[in-house]
DNA sequence: CCTTGGTGAGTGGTGACTCACTCAACGCCG
DNA sequence: CGGCGTTGAGTGAGTCACCACTCACCAAGG
């Protein structure tokens, strides 16, 4: 499975889109500026300057500033997450992991890499969520809708009578991932070794899955 | 140990402070508005209106809008967190928990309640962190500086040769707490039963601390 | 009558957005 | 081919609303 970076995926979708080079620069500039200073503290002058474009150009394609934000977030919501989830289902279906640990290792490292690659967009998204709670609901709903079916077959595969595997079993794993990912989201210039973190997570979580 | 709510602590500190009733209303209004709409999208007119005060009054005590934000965040940074940490150290020293589980139960539920009670301020703080990464460093540094000494005696007490207890042992616990707390921070109107969550966390984490 | 907390109309600056214009690219036709 | 209208991306000075902040004034209490 390819690493799915919104940054590169954005570039892809831009290449496919009918946006000119300058318009693409606008979006790239916005990603950088929004993620660093926040949407509200970024002026259209900032954007134009960083994109190497006049302010008028910004408004040739985007009706207003808000529409740029939507254009940045939309791929995340409408295309990237679903695409990734589908890919993931396909991958899990194909691979037929021969152990629970192997499956988990794939899932954990894959999802962490995804977040890592997309931390800038995720930052922008988080900023918005903190100001517009509706977004939270829709995001959660979609994450569930997409993720649960991806994980259910795995549950069925590896669940055993003495250790029933449920969605709740993923909570500790998810929590551990959060402890590694949150710092990187809050401070994007931090480094994170995904493989090492994955090892650590699996190490800490295996006693939990087989004990009790 | 008293529940430490920034909201009530804020009220306390306000009562102690030399702020008039109207000025206190300004701060309360700002907490509500900032946490809901964000700092940047809250106008001074909004603030005055909700506080039932004229715009001039807002500026009688606060030099500018930014200073109100600082006034809201300052107790969190300068007084609440340390006070709570100190209280916590005192409490742990006093109680001499007779089991690791009892100590953890106290720690987990106490900290979760703290976050829950202060979710509005924490929201405002998070918003700021996402726009000003310096804050992240200082917050992390302080949290460590205050929290590590509070927890070290516990480690010494309950660490056993066959199950050495380190700071890293807390990562899964912290992660699990995050899974319960994040939703409430992102959407403050959500409910959270701290006792139930605490039970759940301890249930999921005990095999981890004693196995391997 | 001074001090102190409060008022709200007013102001200056800023920032989102507009519009009249330029210019290069592209047919299209004599 | 070469002139020539059309198109549409790009420009940037200009506009206008809004918003943080001010200030001249007020009322009440010591």
Automatic annotation (TrEMBL), chains A, B:
Q: Which residues form the HTH tetR-type domain?
A: 20-80
Per the database entry, where does the chain bind DNA? 43-62
UniProt xrefs under InterPro entries: DNA-bd_HTH_TetR-type_CS, Homeodomain-like_sf, HTH-type_TetR-like_transc_reg, HTH_TetR
Pfam families cross-referenced by the UniProt entry? TetR_N
Recite the UniProt keywords alphabetically: DNA-binding
Q: What is this protein called?
A: TetR/AcrR family transcriptional regulator
Species of provenance: Lacticaseibacillus hegangensis
